[in-house]
Amino acid sequence: MNTPAHTMEVWKFGGTSVATPERIREIVGLVRQEPGRRVVVVSALGGVTDQLLRGIDAALARSDAHRDVLTDLRARHDATVEALTDGDERERLQATLAPIWDELGELLDGVYLLRECTRRTRDAILATGERLSVPIVAAAFRAADTPATALDARSLIQTDGAFGEAEVQFGPTEARIREQFETLYAETPEAHVMVVTGFIAATAEGVTTTLGRSGSDYTATILARALQAERVVIWTDVDGVLSADPRLVDAAFPLERLSYREAAEMAYFGAKVLHPRTMRPVEASGIPLLIKNTMNPDAPGTLVTAEAVPTDRRVKAISTIRDVAVVMLEGRGLLGVPGTAARTFDALADRSINVLMISQASSEQSICTVVRRSEAEAAVDALEHAFRHELAQGDVSRVYALPDCAVVSAVGDQMRHMPGLAGRMFATLGRSGVNVLAIAQGAAETNISAVVRDADVKAAVDALHEAFPLRRTRAHLCVIGTGVVGSTLLDILQHQAPRLLDDLRLHLRLVGVTNSRRMRWDPSGLPLDTVLDALDQRGEPADLDDLVERLTASRLERLLVVDATASSDVARRYPELLEQGIGIVTPNKRANTLDMGFYHRLREAAARSEVSYRYEATVMAGLPVILTVRDLLRSGDTIERIEGVFSGTLAYLFRRLAEGASFSEAVREARAGGYTEPDPRDDLGGEDVARKLMILAREIGLEVERDDVRVEPLVPFAMMDGPVDAFMEQVDTLDAAWAERVAAAADDGKRLQYIGRVVDGRCRVGVEAIGPDSPFFALQGTDNAVLFTSERYRDNPLVVQGPGAGPAVTAAGILADLIKAAQLMP
Ligand code: ADP
Ligand code: ASP
Ligand code: MG
């Protein structure tokens, strides 16, 4: 992660992140990786809170099974302690945990004996999960030579006595946190980690309370605000906040940015990844919140701040609350009677029943209230009581509950600018055969919720996720070659990624990068911004065979390889990649200019597996040359001649010669300006132009081998071999001869230009003296130009002209190909 060094941050690790000793070691590694003050909030070991709840149920059922639950829990924690610590540390840890085990045993036995469990007792039992995990995690830090202190949040966070979902009293809480941490920080170095229990708190009298399920997220932001942390990172088991519950929607994807409000709405409407109150403390102080995956720390995660990045994607996500019931109050007598909704709400509030949603049918003949399923009966009872007179008089005909329902909500700050959304939601659900029991729009208009039968929930979420439109195409990308073109492409991709996502709904995920020395491969995604910095340190030794094997074994959908090298070794692998359904996009001219046998294999492989093989950038970089040829042919034209200046380098060189520069000067300038191939003789020898001409000739159906192209090189054959540096030292020996040729042309009012021609099926590349009547006479800078004379464009040829070289336009050409390749893939 790219954080400035030495920041103060609160990191929260959820149950899954501390589920096993291996995971605990991983989080210790994550925390140690960066300098800075870290407050680490941890949940109970994964699944422990649920197990404690089962223990309570077993005790209430008097089955003696609560003892088994206790034994299982103990065995699991003991094994974790043993795996992570030894010697004195282990003994001290066991001594710390022993009284908690005793207490838990007594509490469960108490429930068993009394046959009842108050909310207060329940909180005391649930709190043991975090009280056990925190000393273990702190010991794991120490075992890895990182000083750490375990802290019990009951001495830090003060709440009221609303057990099960206590309200935080921020005044005393912040004072306590600041005071205790001030002392702790005065006594410890920066690397000392404070490990704090999530989820639990205490009343002013010291009675244990909890902040509600998933409350550790909230603990983290409470601490962050009190300590004025620079950032909160919530580490969990998914790549961030996703566009829908991944357990319901396979196509759910991580959201890069959310506003505090969007995150809070998603959480309130059921996105389990965050506790609904998490955003409150940080919203007020503007502390950014990052949600990341412990198992995939390189993935960017979701950043939550005051402002989401404005996009035109108005619905950000679909969330769901399961396990709810709809309580209906029906009757003709409700028609036009004001205040019925308010009375309903009050009646339920009086019995502390949490109303998730209330909606009135437009006929006003029924009021529909959504509550937790466990509270449905109590709600019916409360309403029957509150409306007993109306029931007696027949104004209310009945009160009843539909037990197995779910709330499905569309969330997004920008939704208020989107009229007709409720109608669209209805229509979408209707088309998928989902019956909508009620619909409600939040007051802030940043969400719309529909109540459906629980049996329909998956169909409903899938349909909305698809319709809104949250669906997008993800293509996987592996870049071979990190020279100028490869690195420019990565840079462009990084900047264009949000736009590709918004405009084209295309998500390009980088999964592999290699140069000739090092490679990185990660099917879950590599960061575009830092992958090259990290390549030399974190990369494994490059191995093309190994990479090809990983590519073909990965079975990633829409996998595209960009070959940004000039290597034939890489080019020779194209057919096997294509055969495996992997698309190829390349500026590398080699593959298209090997022998015709290979050329045919390449085409057939691409056609057979129906994936893209695209190479627009091989000829004149980003200019649409291959595209033009294809469109002409596709539309029934016949191309008769192709003529062009295909080398920006040579165009530049001849312009400088015409301006009076010497040959050697011009070569050096072109090389310094980055216009030449790695070895400038690839340009000067005419080889590069010959290849481009071959590619075009083959594109129009000619069977051309390299030997069929007549090439006039600009340097004598004798100088074509040997090291580049030696060549650069000798290049001025050519100056006199070139000066003479240039002068001779000038005497005729002409200038020299390096031109490639395909005429009558023959290919020729060489220096020509051209006059002002030639379309190539006035070419500017490094511009290229190509003329197509065809049946349709005979008297007045079709011209494509412009900058035909340079990293930016080449990378842009590759990107255009990539987009087409990704979109066309099945
Ligand atoms: P932790 O133990 O780290 O607190 P949780 O299990 O509480 O993790 O929350 C993460 C889980 O939330 C994910 O594994 C996922 O199954 C579920 N989830 C539901 N909706 C969403 C969503 N919109 N985005 C991400 N995760 C979600
Ligand atoms: N352990 C608690 C729970 O499972 C709190 C948390 O994980 O955030 O709900
Ligand atoms: Mg959680």
Walk me through what this model shows.
The chain is of the alpha/beta class. 42% of the residues lie in helices and 22% in strands. The chain has an eight-stranded mixed beta sheet with strand order 3-5-2-1-8-10-11-9, sandwiched between helices. A seven-stranded mixed beta sheet has the order 21-20-19-18-22-23-24, with helices on both faces. Helix 2 (48-60) packs antiparallel against helix 3 (65-84) and helix 2 (48-60) packs parallel to helix 4. 47% of the residues are buried. The model has no long low-confidence stretch (mean pLDDT 92). Bound molecules: adenosine-5'-diphosphate, aspartic acid and magnesium ion (MG).
Mean pLDDT: 92
State the secondary-structure class.
alpha/beta
| Spatial extent as radius of gyration | 35 Å
The neighbouring-strand order within the major sheet is 3-5-2-1-8-10-11-9
Distance between the termini: 34 Å
Q: Mind sketching the topology for me?
A:
Layout lengths: L6 E7 L7 H12 L3 E7 L5 H13 L4 H20 L2 H28 L4 H25 L4 E4 L6 E2 L10 H18 L5 E5 L2 E4 L4 E3 L5 H12 L3 E6 L20 E3 H9 L10 H7 L3 E5 L8 E4 L11 E14 L9 H11 L4 E6 L5 E7 L3 H11 L1 H6 L4 E14 L9 H11 L4 E6 L5 E7 L3 H11 L5 E8 L3 H21 L1 E9 L3 E4 L9 H8 L1 E2 L2 H11 L4 E5 L4 H4 L2 H6 L3 E3 L4 H4 L2 H14 L3 E2 L11 H9 L4 E7 L2 H11 L4 H10 L8 H4 L2 H13 L9 E3 L12 H7 L4 H13 L3 E9 L2 E9 L12 E8 L7 E6 L3 H18 L2
Helix pairs in contact: 2-3, 2-4, 2-5, 3-4, 3-5, 4-5, 6-7, 7-9, 8-9, 10-11, 15-29, 23-24
The structure holds adenosine-5'-diphosphate (ADP), aspartic acid (ASP) and magnesium ion.
Magnesium ion (MG) binds next to loops.
